[in-house]
Specification:
The complex is a heterodimer of chains A (547) and B (489).
Chain A: H1 2-6, H2 8-26, H3 32-56, E1 65-73, E2 78-84, H4 86-104, H5 114-133, H6 137-146, H7 148-158, H8 163-192, E3 195-196, E4 201-202, H9 212-218, H10 224-241, H11 250-257, H12 260-285, H13 287-313, H14 318-337, H15 342-373, H16 384-387, H17 389-403, H18 409-424, H19 426-451, H20 468-486, H21 489-506, H22 508-511, H23 515-518, H24 537-544
Antiparallel strand pairs in A: 1-2, 3-4
Helix pairs in contact in A: 2-3, 2-5, 3-4, 3-5, 4-5, 4-12, 4-15, 5-6, 5-7, 5-12, 6-8, 7-8, 8-10, 8-11, 10-12, 10-13, 11-12, 11-14, 12-14, 12-15, 12-21, 13-14, 13-19, 14-15, 14-18, 14-19, 15-17, 15-18, 15-20, 15-21, 17-19, 17-20, 18-19, 18-20
Chain B: H1 2-11, H2 13-28, H3 37-61, E1 67-68, E2 73-74, H4 77-104, H5 108-127, H6 131-149, H7 156-187, H8 192-201, H9 206-222, H10 231-238, H11 241-266, H12 271-294, H13 299-320, H14 323-350, H15 366-369, H16 371-385, H17 391-405, H18 409-435, H19 450-468, H20 471-482
Helix pairs in contact in B: 2-3, 2-5, 3-4, 3-5, 4-5, 4-11, 4-14, 4-19, 4-20, 5-6, 5-11, 6-7, 6-11, 7-9, 7-10, 8-11, 9-12, 10-11, 10-13, 11-13, 11-14, 12-13, 12-18, 13-14, 13-17, 13-18, 14-16, 14-17, 14-19, 14-20, 16-18, 16-19, 17-18, 17-19
Classes of the chains: A mainly alpha (547), B mainly alpha (489).
Chain lengths: 547, 489
């Protein structure tokens, strides 16, 4: 037991749960002050103890560090394995930071059933952290589903007018995806051990295990047909979470109806779980299927980028606008990832962080005026810069971060992704750049309508500027935006070895300088994609039948 | 011979003990003692406890792998696992019923003794290695449960439930007997081992296959699989709620026990023929059970359809057929038992307005008034829906794993999609409890029923422990499966 809690990952993961238990058992519902203090202290402490990961993680060291392994369900070979690499370290830090911020940004926004609210928020935190730490598929899946329940309640109890609809839609949509992923996991598991008897697929005869590290070893050797089906199953699970273009419809509902902190967590962390799933599992485990799917994935990403931006432009509701901008930004992340080269991938991970910071901050900002005016309609504002100068300034910085102005984080992320995409195909970069232009258009247009011009609404004349607590919810995010924008090197340093490991599996030729020839350079007929190496006819056929 | 009889009786010791206990409860319930609710429930509970001890003795002294009563009866770990399940059910039933019977003012004597008799029947079923002994156990269980379904004689719904259950149950028993008589005609024996041996050389005649199909239909009837499920919602709705809880787990698990033993034991040679029959039924069961549950406003009917759906998931393990498959069904039955009894426990607690207070709307705002009760119900619902970290997820994981391993990937895809659908109706209740405020005077109060609460507590502990650390429970099901009385591939 002592050993269990001496591992930093276990400490980070379960501290929020401990805080939740303390609130459940030792605090009465009426003592809202005590509840807020305990929740804030727990979340703050969690962030505090997660910071050393940044310093103690050795990028050049082992692939996974701070490992904790224990027996769990020996009968089926499921183990309790926690461990992190560069990608998960950054996402864990993002999670603990946003978790902390969302707790103390809720003090005035949540005015009823506070006890349950903070309990759910803390449990959600544990679930999300577990997802980024688990290195066993069953454990991963457990955490992946555990966070659905608190999120369901956060939307359903404290959400907006259509909260019930949004909550159930969020839950079912993501659940359908994840249960299909479970089938894929089982297929991999049996391929590694006893095989899938009835469809004539012999197994490798290894000891049954869900250990991701072991499965990585067999990844490249998995038959192409199986790779395709497993990729498809994972794709459904992850793509719904991201959300990629045709699966995005739950997102605007959930984002708009969720309370501010819920939106921050949703946009900041939950969506990253999908992209994390791709980069952690799909790419290194199923390299062949990944290469085969590149054109489909890139196609969907580009549609997502442009469609998300266009729909965002048409929104009258600020929160909805930000929600659709997420679809667009996540399209960027996916595009960079499926460029399958170090630039694209590291830009993609960095852009996950950037999106978490800037979109999280945007939701906080929208929440601040919503609390004062109880409306999110752009038309209800105008000229706010006159009454709320500090607010206007902060909003401006975050807007610029979001649209990728140099010296801010978005620029670095988008630039790296564009370099990666350009490396594969000029056209990818061209489409992506169009998305950036559209992004600048809708963000600046919204900014202009909300902050400039005359104060047209009487109610807005008395609006108070942001108070100290609200400022402090935003300052850490703004500082980070500048840090990444001005000096991103430490982030890339942490990511580099982990990213290279992925590239080495998914496109081994790239690192040896045979880049351009390696990946399908086939603008004309994606369906007949000749990929890097080792092609069987069956794989080509299945590729055509994908999606 | 004398030694044989002694060994036979020792192996039967648990059943004998429970029969004696049932008779004691029956006699004690006659006359003036008939209103002593607490005393009779405790007596029933004590006889279940004694039976557990007797089971331990019987297992310890009996020769491993031996058949008793001229090959009619076996005490292998497979049977023991199911007997433990039945005893758990039988122990929880008096706890769930005690306050309920007192509230509705029905005599507890016959009630508890019938529950125990039904349990004896189920225990015989689990041990039967001959279709005749299996059938005897089945009828003892069935007859007791018909009476129990109609036990609330002042309620019309209870009458309806009993008569429907009786007519359809008798029909299914008839189908079953017809099937086994055809098999007997073709194979010359009702003994499972002898049948398996005879099947080796037998021609696959239409008579043989008809017999097999009729037997399968009879069993599908008993586990309430589509298209033989029509009786379930009406019976479950009309029967007294504690009996519904009992029916939804005990007899269902017993039916699975004989289904596994007969189809993976005696009729293993016919697998290519029954696999499509059972597979098709499993798919329909999962689809229709979950879809029909979506529209139910009565919680008991909803849980009835949900129990139909769960039978569909468990059938996947039977189809897989491997050692892992058998293990997964056993484990699933345990998981389903604790989750379902827990959920029904709350329905019992909430039945405030007589028979009718069972609608989904009765749960409105429960989380505000009774946070602990609402949280408990939520846990059971999530477990039924298979969301980690509850027992339900682990049960599904095993069943799905077994089915994927055996290559039934398409069925598993149906299963996972339908279990996502199932969350919609489970969450409907959660939504009422947590997300609706609930006006004053609306929604039911949780009644003070300490016995029922204890039973729910036991289920809750199991759901939690199995969900987080399933290893010992799964291992228990595994040793069992490895030593099933008949050889497995």
């Amino acid at each position: 037991m002592l050993e269990f809690f001496s591992n930093p990952l276990n400490q980070i993961c379960y501290l929020p749960l401990l805080g939740a238990l303390v609130i459940i058992f030792f605090v009465k519902s009426e003592q809202t002050r005590a509840i807020k203090i305990i929740a804030t202290v727990t979340a703050g402490l969690d962030f505090f103890i997660s910071v050393p990961l940044w310093f103690r993680y050795l990028p050049e060291g082992e692939q996974f560090q701070f490992l904790y392994e224990a027996k769990w369900i020996p009968a089926i070979g499921a183990q309790y394995i926690f461990g992190v690499d560069g990608i998960s370290v950054l996402l864990i830090l993002l999670t603990t930071l946003l978790g902390f911020i969302s707790v103390y940004s809720s003090f005035t926004a949540i005015t009823h059933r506070e006890k349950e609210y903070y309990v759910f928020l803390l449990v959600l935190q544990t679930g999300m952290l577990g997802v980024f730490m688990a290195l066993d598929f069953v454990l991963f899946y457990v955490f992946w589903e555990v966070m659905l329940v608190p999120m369901y309640f956060l939307i359903g109890v404290w959400g907006g007018p259509r909260k019930l609809y949004a909550a159930i839609k969020f839950f079912l949509y993501t659940l359908v995806g994840s249960v299909l992923m479970l089938v894929g996991i089982l297929a991999l598991y049996f391929y590694n051990s006893s095989g899938l008897a009835a469809i004539g697929l012999p197994g490798l005869g290894h000891d049954p295990t869900f250990d991701v590290r072991v499965l990585f070893q067999i990844g490249p050797g998995i038959p192409h047909g199986l790779q395709f089906w497993v990729f498809l199953a994972f794709f459904v699970g992850f793509a719904i979470k991201v959300p990629m273009f045709p699966f995005h419809t739950w997102l605007p509902d959930a984002h708009v109806e969720a309370p501010t902190a819920g939106s921050v967590i949703l946009a900041g962390v939950l969506l990253k779980m999908g992209t994390y799933g791709f980069i952690r599992f799909s790419l290194p485990l199923l390299p062949h299927a990944t290469r085969e799917a590149v054109w489909w994935m890139v196609g969907l990403s580009i549609i997502g980028i442009i469609y998300g931006a266009l729909v965002a432009m048409a929104q009258k509701d600020m929160k909805k606008l930000v929600a659709y901008s997420s679809v667009s930004h996540l399209g960027f992340v996916m595009l960079g990832m499926f460029a399958l080269n170090p630039h694209g991938l590291s830009g993609s991970v960095l852009q996950m962080i950037n999106h978490g910071l800037s979109t999280g901050a945007l939701f906080l900002l929208v929440g601040i005026v919503y609390e004062r005016r109880h409306t999110r309609m752009i038309a209800d504002y105008g000229g706010l810069a006159k009454v709320m100068p500090i607010y206007a300034m902060m909003f401006m910085i975050i807007t610029m971060a979001s649209i990728g102005l140099p010296t801010l984080n978005g620029f670095i992320g988008e630039l790296t992704i564009l370099v990666g995409a350009f490396n594969r195909s000029v056209w990818w970069a061209v489409f992506a750049a169009t998305g950036i232009v559209l992004g600048a258009a809708y963000m600046l247009w919204m900014y202009q309508r909300v902050f400039f011009g005359e104060l047209t609404h009487e109610e807005n004349k008395t609006l108070k500027d942001v108070n100290l607590r609200e400022q402090w919810t935003l300052i850490p995010l703004i500082v980070l935006c500048f840090w990444i924008g001005l000096y991103p090197k430490p982030f890339f340093r942490i990511l580099q070895p982990s990213i290279e490991r992925v590239v080495r599996v998914v496109d081994p030729d790239y690192l040896e300088g045979r880049a351009m020839a390696a990946l399908p350079s086939l603008p004309a007929a994606p369906a007949n994609a000749p990929a890097a190496e080792g092609h069987s006819g069956e794989a080509g056929v299945e590729h055509g039948g994908g999606q | 011979m004398n030694m044989d009889l002694r060994a036979d009786l020792l192996a039967l010791l648990p059943e004998l003990t429970l029969t004696a206990g049932a008779l004691v409860v029956l006699l004690a319930g006659v006359g003036g003692g008939g209103r002593r609710h607490g005393g009779l429930a405790v007596t029933a509970l004590a006889s279940v406890g004694l039976t557990a001890i007797a089971l331990k003795i019987a297992v310890d002294v009996s020769e491993a792998g031996r058949l008793f009563f001229s090959g009619m009866f076996v005490l292998d770990p497979f049977a023991v696992f199911f007997k433990v399940l039945f005893l758990l059910t039988a122990a929880l039933a008096p706890l769930l019923s005690r306050d309920y019977l007192e509230r509705h003012d029905y005599r507890p004597g016959e009630y508890h003794s019938l529950v125990l008799f039904a349990t004896v029947g189920m225990m015989v079923m689990a041990s039967g290695t001959n279709l005749a002994s299996i059938y005897v156990g089945l009828e003892l269980m069935a007859l007791s449960t018909y009476v129990l379904a109609g036990y609330f004689r002042r309620e019309v719904k209870s009458h309806e439930a009993a008569s429907k259950y009786f007519v359809l149950g008798a029909l299914s028993s008839g189908v079953l007997v017809y099937g086994l008589s055809l098999l007997f005609g073709e194979l010359g024996s009702l003994d499972l081992a002898a049948m398996a041996a005879a099947l080796g050389g037998a021609e696959r005649t239409p008579t043989l296959l008809t017999g097999m199909a009729l037997l399968a239909c009879g069993f599908l009837f008993k586990v309430a699989a589509v298209p033989f499920h029509m009786w379930t919602p009406d019976v479950y709705e009309g029967a007294p709620t504690p009996i519904t809880a009992f029916l939804s787990v005990g007899p269902k698990a017993a039916a699975f026990a004989i289904f596994l033993r007969v189809f993976l034991g005696g009729l293993e040679g016919l697998t290519p023929y029954w696999v499509w029959l059972v597979g098709g039924s499993a798919a329909l069961t999962m689809i229709w059970g979950n879809l029909a549950a979506l529209t139910q406003d009565n919680v008991k009917r909803m849980l009835a359809y949900s129990s139909i759906a769960h039978a569909g998931y468990a059938l996947l393990g039977l189809l897989a057929g491997s050692e892992l498959g058998v293990q997964s069904v056993l484990f699933y039955m345990l998981v389903y038992l604790v989750s379902n009894l827990g959920a029904f426990g709350f329905v019992i607690l909430l039945e405030s307005r007589g028979y009718a207070g069972e609608t989904v709307a009765d749960y409105a705002g429960l989380a505000r008034r009774q946070p602990l009760a609402a949280f408990g119900m939520l846990v059971f619902l999530l477990s039924l829906g298979g969301i980690p970290p509850t027992a339900g997820f682990m049960g599904k994981l095993y069943v799905f794993a077994a089915a994927v391993n055996a290559g039934f990937v398409w069925l598993v895809v149906v299963a996972v999609v339908m279990s996502a659908v199932s969350l919609y109706y489970y969450l409907r209740i959660a939504m009422q409890m947590y997300l609706r405020e609930g006006q004053e005077g609306e929604g039911a109060e949780v009644l003070a029923a300490p016995w029922t609460a204890r039973a729910i507590g036991v289920c809750g502990v199991f759901v939690g422990i199995i969900g987080v650390y399933p290893a010992p429970f799964a291992a228990a099901a595994r040793t069992t499966a490895a030593l099933i009385g008949v050889t497995l591939p």
